Input
Amino acid sequence: MYARVTSKQLGFDDLFIFLALCLAIFGDAAAQLQVNNGFGQHLVYLQPMEAIQAGKWTVINQLRSTISIFFIKVSICFFLLRVLANTHFKLKILIIANAVVYGIMVTIFCFIFGFQCRPFDSLWNTTIPHRCIDKQVVNNVGLAGNIINCITDFTYALLPIYIVQQLQMPTKNKIALSFILGLGVLTASCSIGKAATFNETSPDITWVGRKVQIFAALEENIGIVVASLPALRQLFTTFAVKFTTFRSKGVSSGRSTVQSGSGKMVSKSGQYPMGDMQTSSHAQSTDEDGAHLIAAENKGILKSTRVDVEASYPSGHS
Output
């Protein structure tokens, strides 16, 4: 965000990745509450109140993770559209179609998952009277969503490599950018792991859900990093330029200076007292003919100035 704001290139891709980051931070806090209440253990080993709290935060975190991953996909979609600009119309249609289809699937899953039971809090507190749809329906919708998620991940990971090859830039930049965007394959791998371990039919949610949540957290956080890398490259470049400028100023301020007054000449190597002599001086700059130039420490050029000093001693001094 900082790099894009300072360069005045803020776009929708930055907005959605920022929203995903906020949800990811909230997810870390929710995951800690899950673990504190026994998530990762078998349900039979938990106290009733622990089971209720662990189940509640598991449901909340699952919905949050689904929305966050969708925001990451939308951010990558807007970034690719920014790279393509006014070219490759068919590729733009493919990118937008992937995001739209995945968005529809996310909406269906959140609706079915959130309203599978009435009342809503019976999802984690089964002691209250409730009515629920068949768990297998939720499981099938979740698996379908994960499959579409995998396809979208691979599309957004491999498509940029083709796009970058069509850009007019140095080969080393193409390789670097292709590698950065190709890291999205890691998120696709996590999607496969999440799809393989997804199981909403088991009543032991605090135990069965641990693997799904691990893969979901990896997919989410790796996705945020990969989507942020193009902007981070610009940020590192900006900091490098500022650091070089600051260092150059530090070297320049360390050069010797000449200070007048009190009959003393001050230089980098020390002070040279000149007694009580009365001095008058005049400086002649060698701007044009006969200019004497020396190389500075930072490979710059420093113009020298010739100083003529005329001294007259008081009577009694030799």
